[in-house]
Structures are given as C-alpha cells and as structure tokens.
Amino acid sequence: MGSKHQSSRFSSSSSSPSICFSNRFSTILTVTILFTSLYLFISPIKHGSEPLARTIMETGFNGDLRDANFPWNSLFFGNNFEKLKLAVFSKTWPIGAAPGGMERHAATLYQALAAKGHEIHVFTVPSDRKPHIDIHQGNLHVYFAANDHGSVNCSLAFEIFNTINANGQFDYVHTESVSLPHWRAKMVPHVAVTWHGIWYEIMHSKLFEELVFNSQETIPKPVSELHEAMPRLVDEIRFFPSYTQHICISKSAGEVLVNIYQLPQRNVHVILNGVDETKFVHDPESGTRFRKKHGIPINASIVMGVAGRLVRDKGHPFLHEAFSKITKTYTGVYLLVAGSGPWGKRYAELGSNVKVLGALEPSELSEFYNAIDVFVNPTLRPQGLDLTLMEAMHCGKPVLTPNYPSIVGSVVVNQSYGYTFSPNVESLVEALKSVIKDGAKVLKNKGIACRQHALSMFTATKMADAYERFFLCMKNDRFCHYPLPTDC
User: Fold this and answer.
1) What values do phi and psi take at 390, rounded to 5?
2) Fold category of 284-457 in CATH
3) 220-247 per-position pLDDT tens digit
4) CATH homologous superfamily of domain 25-272+460-482?
5) Do residues 118 and 139 lie in contact, with contact meaning Cβ atoms separated by under 8 Å?
6) Residue 329: CB atoms within 10 Å
C-alpha cells in the first residue's frame, strides 16, 4: 500500500467554512439542547433483563461482521494463523505513571496484537514530552517523531512510514482519533480510525459544564465554548468521511455516527476498550495492606475511591461538595483520592475521612481498587469510556458513575454493576446515600457481578481479538463471516 510522501501542508476540501461566532446564544443553546435531547433519545438508558437477552442474541450471531450493530467484544474469535503488518498513528505513547486513558489503551492494544504475532509499527511521541529512543520489542516497533513542541511531527512520521511501507506494504493503517489528520488520511488507501471522543459528545459535556458551573457565577461568564461547539461539530461531520472505516468505543457513539454523522452502517463498528486482565485482579489481601498503609481504620463502614486527573471537568467539584455533605452524617465513610491536579489540595481540606494519595504507579492501581468498596467516577465528560471503570470492575468493585448514554449503554448496563446519577450535586448525594444504605455486603455481591461482566467484555485479550478480526476482515472478505470453523 503505497502513500507518496508530501512535505507541504495539505488542505481538505471539507475544511471549516467561515462561520460567524456571533450568533445569538439563545439559538446556539436551543440547537444544542435539541441535539442533546436527540442524543439521549437514540441512546436510551436501559436496565433490567434487556442486557442479558442482548448478550444471548449477540453470541448467537451468524452473518457478516460488518452488519453487526453491537460490540465485537461480545463474540468469540478462534485462533488465526494469518499475520498482519499494521501502521498505527497515536497521539502519545505512555511513559511513567501520568498518561491518560487513550495512551494506555494504545499501549495495551498494540502490545497484545504484537504478542499475537502481528508486525506493529507505531508512529507517536512520548507522553512525558522528553527525548526517548525508539522502542523495538519483538513485533512491536514504536517510532518517536516529535516536533519542537513535543507533538507528533506528521511529516517526519510519514517519512518513516513511507520507508517501512516501501520494504513491504502495510495491510492497513490505524489511527487513534485524529492522530492521523483527515487531510493525510485522504492519501492513504486503507485507513481505520478509533474514536475516543466525538464533538457530538463533547458538546454534551460543554452543555453540562455551562449549566452547572456558569449558573453558580454572580455574573455569568461568556459561553464561548458553547458558541464554538456547533461549528466544530459541523466541521467534524464533514471531514469524517475522509477515513475509510470507523471504530467506536461505545455503542452510543456508533449510533451517533450512523444517525447524525450519516456514515454508512457498514463503515461503523463498535469495539469496546479492554484492560490487561492479568494486572487488574481481585486480590482482597493487597487491598487490606493498602488500607493499612494509608491509615484507613479497620472499623470503616464504607471506603470509596476516585482516580484520575483532579481537574474541574472530571467532576471533582461535584464529588468534593457531595462528599463534604455526606461526612456530616456518615462519619464511618472514607474516600481515597488517587491522582494529581488542583483539586487534590481541596480534598485534603475535608479532613481525616479523605486520604489524598497523589498519582499512583501502574503497579499500585490494582491495590488501590482492591482497597475500596465502590469506585466513584464523577466526570462531566460523557465522551468515550473511562478505563478506570473497567479496571475497578476487573478488581471486583461496583462503580458509581453519571448516567451518560456511553456508560449505561456499554459498561454499567445493569443495576447489578453499580449506581448511576444525573450530573448534579443533589443526584450524586442521593447516589452516595444509596451506596451507604446498601452497605459492604451488597457492594461485595455487586462487585462479583462486575468482575464477571468485565472478564466477558473488557479484557485486553478480547479487545485484541476483536481488532485482529477487524483488520483481517478489512484485508480479506472471508474473515468477515461469523462464525468461521475456527471460531469458538
């Protein structure tokens, strides 16, 4: 698959039109609410027995995988002996303990595919923005092509890409979101993109932030981000067809790409993220040691945990206010806060019932999850899926999370897996009270169900199997049929 190197900047025929940002706020907000309402309508929150019936239906699937409108993770793929040569463009490659979910997803996926015998070439930059030598570990090759600002130098990355491609063409090119810009993607014959967040969902986030935070101001600030959201959404819808195939990490995002972005159903596929099931395991003893290390008393009634960047759009103002109210009534409830950011100091001011741990090393995360009774994710960002939810579930812990379509449609699909709340303080307080009322025994039973669900859907193995079959299907139609004789 050849791709002629270009050193000049490319312009897309679908580049952003000149849009006046001085439209009336009322118009923007009205349209935003309309779109958000439609989003919620096409991605209804469903609980009860429906997910079980859906799983039975999916595992009994027989047909062309390109027609599947459910996560490929729910299927069972057999052994494959045909090897692939894949090119990958990723925003960053994880170095140290600080990387976000997209970087950790990328490393987990490509290490797993390389372990299956596929030749993987990743074009990226280190997440710490410091100089590092390229990585060559067996079938995995990671090339760091950074510009002066530490971001991916697309021209340099393409030079390396073309050199490797000339020595044997890539079977397919994969990009994590827009790591391969759409004007470059047009030049590549076979390219697939995995979307970790789309502007339709980001607009949803901006609306929540406006309703929650700006309404608290004595004099509301200008809502420039909401003004910008709609034009960026329109621009995104226009350039998405530049990518041949689209992979979504939640079922609701896949529905949006088909129903709103108007992409062909056969070009949109759902593969949920997975985490390394050998690293995130149920280990009560490690949890006990972790509690003791960080001063959690033996007679604590409930230990909650939150992890990630401690910033506003991750919902920490919500949790800070809600937990401060909870501790006034429930003195035996504790909160472990793992992560770094400006809200760390504010959590510490809540008193001895809150333990701020700072950023944890990857090896400590499983211990952290095992030390808690329930994992809380108060995020105001409904785009994509937070890996922390899956990590906690693998460790046998229920979760408490906003009721966004991406989450209730793909992760917390049943009340057996935890608790959901609307993105406001009052709803979060009520959800926290429900957790406390249920108590440790009920939480333990929910955690068992969570672990079973995670092992069936959110493992690195199942994610890698799904991606492997996807790329084989794109290379050869024969692999698009399911089941094959080799499938379990």
Assistant:
1) -70, -40
2) Rossmann fold (3.40.50)
3) 555 667 778 889 999 999 999 999 999 9
4) Glycogen Phosphorylase B; (3.40.50.2000)
5) yes
6) 9
